[in-house]
Amino acid sequence: MSPTVGRYVLIGVLVAVAVAVFVAGRRRRGLGLPALRRRTSADQRSLTVAVLSWLLVALVVAAASGAALLWAFGWPRLPSMPAFDPAQTLDLVRIVLTVVAGIGGVVLLAVNMRKQRVTEAEHDLAVARAEREREQGFNERFGTAAEQLAHGNAAVRLAGAYAMAGLADEWSQAQVCVDVLCGYLRLPPPADGDEETQVRNTILRLIRERARDRWSSLDFDFTGVEFEDADFSGGDFSGTVVFDGAKFAGSLTSFRGTTFAGRLSCHGTVFESTETSFAGAEFHAAKAEFVGARFAGDLLSFENVTVDRISVDFYRCDFALPLLDFSLATISSGVLRLQHCELTRATLDFSFLNDSLWNLTGFPRVTLEDCRLTQCLIDLRWSGQPSWLWWLDGCRLEQVEFKTGHPDDTGKRWLNVRDVELVATELPERCVNQRGAVQMPGAGNNTPSAPC
User: Fold this and answer.
1) In the chain, fewer beta carbons within 10 Å around the N or the C end?
2) Residue 149 contacts by C-beta under 8 Å, 6 or more apart in sequence?
């Protein structure tokens, strides 16, 4: 056979192999994923197709390699069979056996890959099945706990509270469980008095304990809830906490040492405890809103609080108590603002504000804006090192006394005043940075101001 004829024969073989591979691939794709999942004769047909496909690929590779070699050697003529001696015949037999072994290896490779795919698919199905069963178990536990919380017996409701909290510790839908517990607190209490109080106190204790770590990133909605001696001390709230329309009563409402890194909303909230304490609380990178809130009792304490990258706003609040304590507060970068508030016969203690800050890098501000103060004392001792810290804007001050003083007084003017109406009130002159105050009739009875 001439070299030209040999070339055409080889090209024809390659084309036939390529067509066979294409047809086998089309057939394999036509089977689709459902055929791979059926454990019937269709699986065997799919396996056969996979083996044949790999064999055809092996033949294509072998044909291409052989063609390349023949091309490289100039398409040499093969000798006739009688020209082979025994040694050459043995070599040919070895070559044939090697080819057969290679074909067997290809078949084994195809079978193993097929088994691997089936095993992976079964593993994925098992994982999905286990996840569905796990989720179904959580849903069943959720339904059971919710039914217990709605039970008429207080002991069953108490068990439901523990069950719901335990589920929240394990389930990815912890927010749903917390919403149910908060929703229970918002409901009108049943008629069983002391027993129901125990259930509600237990829920609050569960929230307080878990808010320190496991539930710290969740949101809490206490809208309209009535609290008696509420204790949220030491909590860590990085989500949204809502006390809109809530009422705090008793001898002490405590948020001592609580951290708020999310939004705190107190719209229309009533604080009537003898003492309401946010002492040592920290407000970070968020917003605290006391809008239309009412503060009664003897003391509202924000002593030693930290305000960092946040605004703490008191807007149109009613302060019916004698002392607001903001002493030793640290405002590193943020705003503490009282706006449209009225205070009568009250002491606002801002003494030693930012006393712990030696290297102030932010721009803190304390602002009294459009407020009405009557017969009040504003304690600003040690305050006002930076000239932008203190602002009185649009306020009416009637019979208001300022208490100032700093052991290292250098005569700085740090009290910024703008559009302030003074009635029987005298500002500490040496501390005033800007003057926009207007003395009203009756100023002759001004109280003397302390040196700055």
Assistant:
1) N
2) 157, 160, 161, 164, 180, 184
DSSP 244: T
**Coil, strand, or helix at residue 240?**
coil
H-helix or E-strand containing 157? Answer: helix 154-170
Please name the amino acid found at residue 240.
Answer: T
pLDDT digits (tens, 9 = 90+) for 11-31: 555 545 554 544 455 445 444
Q: Which helix (H) or strand (E) holds 226?
A: strand 226-228
Residues whose CB falls within 8 Å of the CB of residue 14, separated by 6 or more in sequence, listed in order: 60, 63, 64, 67
Q: From CA 35, how far away is CA 74, in angstroms rounded?
A: 48
Cα of 131 vs its chain's centroid, Å:
24
pLDDT at residue 35, rounded to an integer: 42
Task: Tell me which DSSP letter residue 73 carries.
Answer: T
Residue 288 phi, psi dihedral angles, 5° rounding = -115, 125
**In contact, 248 and 224? CB cutoff 8 Å:** no
Segment 31-68, tens digit of pLDDT: 444 444 445 555 556 666 666 666 676 667 667 766 76
pLDDT (tens digit, 9 = 90+) per residue, 204-230? Answer: 999 999 998 899 999 999 999 999 999
User: Which residues in 65-127 belong to E strands, given as ranges?
Assistant: none
Quick check: helix, strand or coil at residue 261?
Answer: coil
Q: What burial class does residue 297 get, using C-beta atoms within 10 Å of its C-beta: 0-12 exposed, 13-18 middle, 19+ buried?
A: buried
> What tokens does 334 get?
């943020």
- pLDDT for the residue 42: 55
Measured distance CA(417)–CA(391) in Å, rounded: 6
d(CA 275, CA 270): 13
Tell me how far CA of residue 214 lies from CA of 59, 160, 354, 391, in angstroms. 62, 19, 32, 40
Least confident of 188-202, 258-272, 335-349: 188-202
Q: What is the Cα–Cα distance from 215 to 218, expressed in whole angstroms?
A: 5
Higher pLDDT, residue 13 or 109: 109
Other Cβ atoms less than 10 A from the Cβ of 142: the count is: 19
d(CA 230, CA 253): 5
Q: What is the pLDDT of residue 13?
A: 52
**pTM for the complete prediction?**
0.73
